[in-house]
Amino acid sequence: MCRLFAMSAGRRRVQATFWLLDAPDSLARQSRAEPDGAGLGVFTADETPSVYRTVLAAYEDSQFAAEAREVESKTFVAHIRYASTGTVALENTHPFEQQLRLFAHNGVVGDLPKLEQALGRYRSLVRGETDSERLFALITREADRTDGDLTTAIANAVRWVSRELPIYALNLVLTTADGIWALRYPDTHDLFVLERPAGGSHGHRHFEGASAAGRIRVRSAHLSDTPAVIIASERMDEHPGWQNLASGELIHVDTDLTVHSTMAVREPPAQLLRLKDLDPRAAISQKRAHTGTT
Fold first, then answer.
1. Phi/psi at 292 (5° precision)
2. Most buried residue, 157, 237, 258, 270, by most Cβ within 10 Å?
3. What is the C-alpha to C-alpha distance for residues 286 and 278, in angstroms, rounded to an integer?
4. pTM
5. For the chain, what is the radius of gyration of the CA atoms?
6. What span, in angstroms and rounded, lies between the C-alpha atoms of 25 and 3?
7. Residue 4 and residue 104: Cα distance in Å, rounded?
């Protein structure tokens, strides 16, 4: 299962250190080959997206991804890819960028020819082979139709996909220079949110969190005195405030770190896929949530 992580510090630019491939465990090695790609997206002081991406097809790439990366931003997005659609290549590695927005996705969406037909001229935004980048282009199309209202755009895009295309999972995060949107749909995979006060639950601690297998590890000393909202496919630390989004729930984290929640999709997918319906490669990439390995 792909790993998603996003974080907002609201109006403040904070420093954070990321390890995108930290200490993979033996169970992960036994259950599947190493991850296929890793990416980290931030925004510069002038609100320009800055993206680091690497494929992990070689030992040298894995070593590079495991090195500490210190970055500064108001919003962050990180992703570890287990390929379900498309080859192991840089153009298929998340996060993707479109119109000063960054996007990462965990799941499988089928019938890509039908999705491409719906994109029309927005198909030109797609550089790679993934369902994720095509879904992002659909959201971009809807954002243009709604004058940049990303909450409505994401809801419209996901509703269309839920009616028209086969879906296994459609968890996503979308970041701008000053906001984050996250959606869980349906309940195939988890997606957690933490509204973390400055200093955490003890009131004086920096933030240091990691996925259970150590695939993504993040540390920020600034969060000892700065609140943040964190979104992740797994609980990243022992804080009791982690909450799993409901199926179909879309949240928007604004510049004041207020979390706005709406039910973007109330109906189940019209064509819900099961693991047995996926091709072997896609099934392996998604299976990790069900096996208990991380």
1. 90, -5
2. 157
3. 9
4. 0.90
5. 18
6. 15
7. 7
Give the C-alpha separation, 93 to 163, whole Å: 27
Helix, strand, coil percent content, the chain, rounded in steps of 5: 30, 35, 40
Residue type, 123: R
Q: Which two tokens stand for residue 44?
A: 């510069």
Residue 173: name the closest of 165, 181, 161 by CA. 181
For residue 173, which of 160, 183, 164 has the smallest C-alpha distance?
183
Distance CA 40, CA 86 (A): 19
Residue-level pLDDT, tens digit, the chain, 294 residues: 678 999 999 999 999 999 988 755 433 443 345 678 889 999 999 999 999 998 876 666 777 777 889 999 999 999 987 766 667 778 898 999 999 999 999 989 999 999 999 999 999 999 999 999 999 999 999 999 999 999 999 999 999 999 999 999 999 999 999 999 999 999 999 999 999 999 998 888 999 998 776 578 999 999 999 999 999 999 999 999 999 999 999 999 999 999 999 999 999 999 998 877 776 666 655 665 443 332
Walk me through the domains of the chain, giving residue ranges and CATH numbers.
Answer: 3-291 (3.60.20.10)
